[in-house]
Amino acid sequence: MEKKYPNQWLGLKNVIYKDDDGVTMESAEIVYTDKSKEELLKMQISGVDGIIGWYTAEEGMMLGMAGVI
After folding, report:
1. What is the pLDDT of residues 14-60, one digit of tens each?
2. Which 3 state secondary structure label does DSSP give 2?
């Protein structure tokens, strides 16, 4: 994801984590590439379609809001 969408907030659903650790993402369905961090956070809090906000960094380190809420 970080190669195709570097330094960008993504709206994801159907996230699968390695060993169910809640941190190391193995796969996810990208459903939004055009939303701001604030828009994605509102969707996540509201429970819209199980969307989580996730930020991709060009260096490959991914930061997300999934564990925050």
Report:
1. 999 888 887 788 999 999 999 999 999 999 999 988 999 999 886 64
2. coil
Is 54:23 a contact under the CB 8 Å cutoff? no
Q: Could you tell me which residues come within 8 angstroms of residue 62 by beta carbon, excluding any fewer than 6 positions away? A: 1, 2, 25, 54, 55, 56
Q: Annotate 55-68 with DSSP letters as a single string.
A: EE-TTS-EEESTTT
6-15: pLDDT as tens digits: 999 999 999 9
Strand, helix or coil for residue 25: strand
CA distance 16 to 28: 6
Q: What's the pTM?
A: 0.75
Non-local (6+) Cβ contacts of 43 within 8 A are 11, 35, 49, 51, 53
